[in-house]
Design brief:
Elements: H1 2-10, H2 12-31, H3 37-47, H4 49-61, H5 67-97
C-alpha cells in the first residue's frame, strides 16, 4: 500500500492532467449534436493508425526472447487495423446516405 501512495505522490501532476482531460472531454462531447457523433467517431477511429505505427515500433524494438512484447505488439497491430478499417467502413456508409438515388 505504501508503494502505491509513493507512486501517486510521484505522479501527482500526471494524475491531475488525466482527470482534467476526462472532464474536458465530457464537456466537449456533450456539446456535439447527436447528428455529428457517428462521423466524428468514424474519423477518430481512422486516426488511430498511430496505434499501428506504435505497435510496429514496439515489435521492432523487442529484445530476442521477449515474447510478451511481441504478442502485445501483434495484438495491437491487429486491433488497431480493425479499428481503422471500421472507421473507414462507417464513414463510407455515412457518405452513401447522402448520394442521390438512381
Amino acid at each position: 500500500m505504501e508503494q502505491v501512495l509513493e507512486w501517486i505522490a510521484g505522479h501527482q501532476e500526471m494524475i491531475y492532467v488525466v482527470v482534467l482531460m476526462i472532464f474536458v472531454g465530457i464537456e466537449i462531447i456533450g456539446k456535439v449534436p447527436s447528428v455529428l457523433h457517428t462521423p466524428l467517431m468514424s474519423g477518430a477511429n481512422a486516426i488511430h493508425g498511430v496505434v499501428i505505427i506504435g505497435a510496429i515500433i514496439v515489435m521492432g524494438k523487442a529484445e530476442e526472447g521477449n515474447t510478451i512484447a511481441l504478442i502485445l505488439g501483434f495484438l495491437a497491430v491487429i486491433l488497431g487495423t480493425l479499428n481503422v478499417v471500421g472507421g473507414f467502413v462507417v464513414t463510407d456508409r455515412m457518405l452513401e446516405m447522402f448520394k442521390k438515388k438512381k
